[in-house]
Design brief:
3 strands, about 140 residues, alpha+beta
């Protein structure tokens, strides 16, 4: 059912926890399944230097948040904002169709954390655009 990468990220997630003096924190939940994901960021300049997560959810939700935080470390805020759920799914080697929504939580938590970072600095939040909250992009197309 799950790929080896999903199992590895679920059983041995690297960036679990919170950043005490985080520059931005985003929390999202899926009311349908009950998964909750919280991502905190440390930013220097325009680059994410640390990202941590706390997730209450299934194996796919934990693996998605673990992979997403791994992927955005070192990215600019713009690059992290543009990370799609398909990018996360691809990095995990795929997710079963009923679990793809977990990758949406990761993308949305990252965007919420970036917007929290921006509003703390008096900047307007970014708009999600046409592929906004909870819309998926197909793997390979996002």
């Amino acid at each position: 059912m799950y790929t080896e990468k999903v199992i590895a990220e679920f059983t041995n997630p690297e960036y679990v926890g919170e950043i005490a003096d985080a520059d931005g924190v985003g929390e999202v939940e899926n009311p349908g399944c009950g998964d909750i994901m919280r991502i905190s960021l440390k930013v220097e300049g325009d680059r994410i230097v640390d990202a941590r997560f706390k997730t209450f959810g299934c194996a796919a939700a934990i693996a998605s948040s673990s992979m997403a935080t791994r992927m955005i470390r070192g990215m600019t805020l713009s690059e992290a904002w543009n990370l799609s759920n398909a990018d996360v799914v691809d990095a995990l080697g795929g997710l079963p169709e009923p679990k793809v929504h977990c990758s949406l939580l990761a993308r949305d938590a990252i965007r919420a954390a970036i917007n929290d970072y921006r509003t703390r600095r008096g900047l307007p939040p970014l708009e999600a655009g046409p592929s906004g909250c909870c819309e998926e992009t197909e793997p390979g197309n996002g």
